[in-house]
Amino acid sequence: MFLGGLEIKMPTVFQLFNFVLLVIETLIGMVGNGFIVIVNGIDWFRSRKLSPADMILSCLGFFRFLFHAVVIQYAISILFFMKTDQFKHLKVAYYTSWLFINTADLWLGTWLSVLYCVKIANFSHPLFLQMKRRFPGLVPWLLLGTVVFSAISTIGTGTSKANVSKCNSFESLLTNNSDLENEIFNSCKYLLLLYVVPNFLPFMIFLSSSILLLTSLWQHKKLLQNSAKDVSTEAHWNAIKALASFCILYVASFFVELLLIVLFAMGMKGIGNLFFLLNVILAYSSGHAVILLFINPKLKQESVKMLHQLKC
Length: 312
Prior knowledge:
By secondary structure, the protein is an all-alpha fold.
């Protein structure tokens, strides 16, 4: 079927199921992250200042909102439109947008984990104590550096448009040409390297800070265990569960994105399989936004107030 010069194809049931799930996760993610940005924006407008945690959360919510918008546009394009000359020019734009936003997202999630670690964890090491004093003041510069670094890494990828076009394209989903598949394989190996190099460092920093924080909280919880129904013990247990969930979502999203590029390099066929992996990736930003609305006192209060107003 043709509409406005574009060739429209009918999706399968499996593809539609994963697409509907993708739409649901996108709506949850965009509403949750958009709400975080709006609440902190109103707070900044009133007081002209934000805490380091709110600065990171605002930037994180903004980039995740953009990430959901890019993914859902890409999903609609590859589900309903066959490869056309008009869409071929958008493939590089989708990939470079993905790389820029996702690199920023990974770094911002890392800074949030580090901030939680230095504010909550209790260690007596001199280096940790120095980080505890200095890190909150460095947050604005770290946010600026994150955007600059993400832009630079994206520009580096943008110089290899041929590799992007060959790898993250319809050919990798639909081709039966062995020579073309070999070219795609080499291109995807190059793109995998471009993804791993700038993003492996924040992943390791995130993992280290999360382990330190969870270890500190667990040790503190064990010290308070003898207290009968101690409020502090319950608060620490809730914090452990929330941070562990954040860590699991972050790690799963990182490795699934690596898997997505590797499967492209191996000639993965099937848009339904692609959508399944995208659902896992989007579960991170959507799930973490929901977690933040439950554990962050200010966000929780504002969300309850908004729900009450809607109910009235």
